[in-house]
Amino acid sequence: VTTRRWLSRLAALARGRRLDADLDDEIRAHLELAERDARARGLTADEARRLARLQFGCVERVREQHRDVRRPRAIDAFGRDLRFAARRLRARPGFAGAAALTLALGAGLATVAFTTTRALIHGPMGVADPDRLVWIGTRVPAAEGIGGGVSGVEADSVASQTDVFAAVAVIGSRARVLTVGQGRAEWTGLWVTLQLADVLRITPAAGRAFTGADLDHRGAAPAMMMGFSRWQRDFGGDPAIVGRVLRFEDNKPHTIVGVLPRGLRFPDGRAPGAGSGVEFALGEQDFWILGQELPSALPGGTVVARLRDGMAAEAAAARVEAIAADARDPDRIATAVTIRSHALGAMRRGVPLLSAFAALVLAIACANLTTMMLARGSQAHEEATLRLALGADRVDLVRLMVAEALWIALAGAAGAVGFTAAARALFAAAIDAAVVERATSLGMTAAFALLTATLVALAATAVRVSAEAWRIRPSAIRVVNRGASADRRVTRAMNGFVCAQIAITLVLLTGGALVVRSLGRLLAVDAGYDRRGVVAADVLMFGPPAEFVPYFLNLHERLRALPGVEAVGLVQSTPLTGKWIIREPLGLDGRGSIDASGTFVAFDYFEAIGTPVLDGRTFTRDEVTSSRSRVIVINDVAAAHFFPGERAVGRRLTLLGRPREVVGVVKGTRDVELSVAAEAQWYQPAFVGGSQVIVRTSDDAAAFVDTIRRELLASDARVIVKRVEPLASVVARSVGDRRTAAQLLAGAAAVATVLALVGLYGVVNFRSLQRRREFSVRVALGASPRTLMMLVLRQAAAISMLGVSIGAAAAVPLSRSLESLLFSVRAGDPSTTAVVALALAAMTIATSAIPACRAARVNPVDLLR
Amino acid sequence: MSKPESSLFPHGTLDLAILRTLDSMGALHGYAIARRLEQLAGGATLSQGAVYPALMRLEQERLIKAKWGLSETNRRVKFYSLTAAGTKRLQREVATWKQSVSLLARLLEDEA
Q: Across the interface, which of A4, A57, A70 has its CB nearest the CB of B56?
């Protein structure tokens, strides 16, 4: 069959239906012409019709023959191969299942890595060209990402760099409370500068964006843009909302001028601002309101900018660093980071690592599948030889192997899709599963899984083909029948693949162990407070500040009276939440000042959160309720800085432009990130409307959450209770990125281990099956089962020890790439490597013991007979 | 794959007969080809339908080409004609056949 004819047949296959119709047309015309001729010869209509049909012959048969001619033979033959391969695989469910499982794990992990990476890097924000957006903030030493806290002047000078930035805007977070009927709802949103709509390049869903005229509202209700979901949910998407005035509590009316576009999620992922007093509601906002015209009028805002086309983020960062260099504090460097990479946080380095891990696991899966295929080939050797002897083409044999590979790939891809779904469900809390879902359709997941699985299966088949198909000789049939062992080169290749798998697995396990150990050390670090038994509740009190004092006094009494409650304190910012930490330097006359962060506390805050008071005392109730207190508590870092070797209590420090008396020294607390040591800190006594209630209980904190929430709700009708949760959850959330990275990497290492052990088992089992005859002879000659077992084990141990040594050597330099995820564990930490290597070695021995025991039980009579 | 059978034309000769017919008579539709073959056979019966699979095969081998037209009864119908490859193939096949026929004829005469 010439190629051309084959191609035309292939085309015909696609056109089959149309050709059937064409043929029917031709047959109809044929019969009509025949009838006409018959009538012309004087036959009646009936006779003519009958004769025409008679002469034509069986129509159905013609159709069938026509179709036969059209069907391309090669495709037909491959279809037969596929059917045959399916039957052969069904006959060997062990091989088929193991191969498909291997592919499912390898391709599944690759798919998880691919879809997660893609979602995190390309997840939709509802913003045009989001990769051109950057945050401008200060670099926080040793912490992930950047902080807010760019001064207004700096923001102005950034905005003047029109050759770098197309638009620059400043945002901050705001909340409003609206009473609708009986319910009070808190709206979370942003205050923005006019330019934000240009920075994000959005078009309102209804109404208009802010204009310059909105800045000067002359006593009228200030302009507000409403979030799309809020508009749909609370106002039924009524366009008449535009122009209406909504009266929020605390006497804050707003005129709705427009509705934000559907699907706008900004900021999505984290915004910089930990420690700068900014905590953004993430995702969709309920509203935007307008701040001031000039960024310089808005201290404490977060700067977001759109890069000009063609401007790289790195170049923009360099420019910002140059213009905003702050001589006062050399550690404080303003810079620009793309929104995407900032949102990735610790995952920024974890995600490429996950991809690298997934690639290595895929390599293991490929090696594993290859050894399985080689073993399978050796088992099918006899059959293949027979087929060749009976006249099969070598190409036929290859086609059959490819057909097998395709089935395995299909099953593997299906498994991989399941694996991906399961992994996503497992990590739903950690990876923003919704983002992954939005960014990656099932079709794309399936397509990627299928592509990966097929490529791996075909690669493994290529090795099988080169090892097998061209070496089988029909004349070898007798040798095969005598049960000779496999080709030495095939055996050596299989050993090599298993060895490589074990080496890669050790690298992955070491990496996973380092990251997991780091997480453990991080969670065990002394943060300066004791999270056990502590509940943190976020409350928002509206009303004149004069009413706060009686309210909080009352609240304190109520909570204190609960059985099991040991201490109750108030703080403006719970550690690690990034809320309202105030950055104000502490100064001492004649000794300059240092950067410090601080917050307002009341009642038994230090006792409640478990921060040890090292010297002096905490605040009295009078100091808290009086608005003229001039006392502060500082931490050990500040005390050691200003008064090394002396008592700090009783001394005076300058804070917020006034001298303050130090009444106590407490232990420093890790407030921004668990991995960052405490800086100088100060505490002032005060009540604040938006406070965190810290409750120390004698028992499990989780058990108190509901009680405390009820008590808070009952305390006053005006209070809004936001989050109530154990402090331990806050801490856990703050290391969420690291936890995710650790889980993903450890998961990948576990998958690799399973694959490598399966691969090792397969090869050892295969080899001992091959040597069954030899073993029988040995037993017949007096070898003990134990000798046989040791024979198999020794061989397996040789492979695994080589793999473990190579892996251990490679793990040390390779684990350096994990450095960003490590905490108080060194990359290449010898004890970790040693423990992991021993564990893996033990697992390989245990795995090879199974086929070894089976080999020892060989019965020579069975085989020699 | 079964070959279209015809009591009239031995295995493989139907294709040749169709090529020859198209060569001598130009573009024809299926019915005309079948009629012509019947005439050549001197009234012996042919399952006329058998020409269609053969025509399909020849078309796939690009020995003939088909063009839609209208039959005498105003039906949509394909008109088949030889391609250059078809003409060449016909010449070759005819030569081969002539050779084999004369060989066979001599053989049979010898035996007779």
A: A70
Whether the CB-CB separation of A142 and A386 falls below 8 Å is answered with: no
Contact A168, A195 (CB under 8 A): yes
Give the E-state strand segments of A235-362 in sequence order.
Answer: 245-248, 252-259, 287-290, 302-307, 333-338
Q: Mean pLDDT: which of A73-77, A309-313, A520-524 is highest?
A: A520-524
Question: What is the DSSP secondary structure assignment for residue A310, as one 8-state letter?
Answer: T
- Of the candidates B30, B53, B77, the beta carbon closest to that of A65 is on B53
Nearest chain B Cα distance for residue A392, angstroms:
19
Give the E-state strand segments of A339-444 in sequence order: none
Q: Reduced to 3 states, what is the DSSP secondary structure of residue A709?
A: helix
**8 Å CB contact between B31 and A30:** yes
Residue A275 CA to residue A149 CA, distance in Å, equals 8
At which residue do the structure tokens 């007798």 appear? Answer: A478
At residue A586, the 3 state secondary structure works out as: strand
Q: What is the pLDDT of residue A807?
A: 93
Joined tokens for residue A813: 């330099």
Using an 8 Å Cβ cutoff, are A624 and A685 in contact? yes
- The pTM score is 0.67
SS3 A542: coil
State residue B11's pLDDT score: 62
Please give the helix or strand (H or E) that residue A99 lies within, else none. Answer: helix A93-122
Q: Hey, what amino acid is at A127? A: V
ipTM of predicted complex: 0.87
What b-and-e string marks burial along A574-612, b requiring 16 or more CB atoms within 10 Å of the CB? bbbbbbbbbbebbbbeeeebbebbbbbbbbbbbbbbbbe
- The tally of CA atoms less than 13 A away on the side-chain side of residue A253 is 9
CA distance B72 to chain A (A): 7
- Identify whether the C-beta of residue A337 lies closer than 8 Å to the C-beta of residue A348: no
* A31-45, A175-189, A550-564, A782-796: range with lowest mean pLDDT: A175-189
| A88's tokens | 């052969």
Is B49 part of the contact surface with chain A (CB cutoff 8 Å)? yes
Q: Which residue of A has its CA nearest to B44?
A: A55
Of A12, A26, A55, the CB nearest to B77: A26
Mean pLDDT of A423-435: 63
Residue A528's CB: how many other CB atoms inside 10 A? 21
Residue A169 φ/ψ, nearest 5 degrees: -135, 160
Cα atoms in the Cβ-side hemisphere of radius 13 Å centred on B5: 5
For residues A54 and A31, give the distance between their C-alpha atoms in angstroms, rounded to a whole number.
Answer: 10
Burial class (CB in 10 A: 0-12, 13-18, 19+), A327: exposed
Where do runs of H (alpha helix) occur along A152-280?
152-159, 196-200, 228-235
Strand pairing report for A534-541 and A287-290: unpaired
A340-354, A610-624, A695-709, A745-759 — which is least confidently predicted?
A340-354
**Residues in chain A, how many?**
865
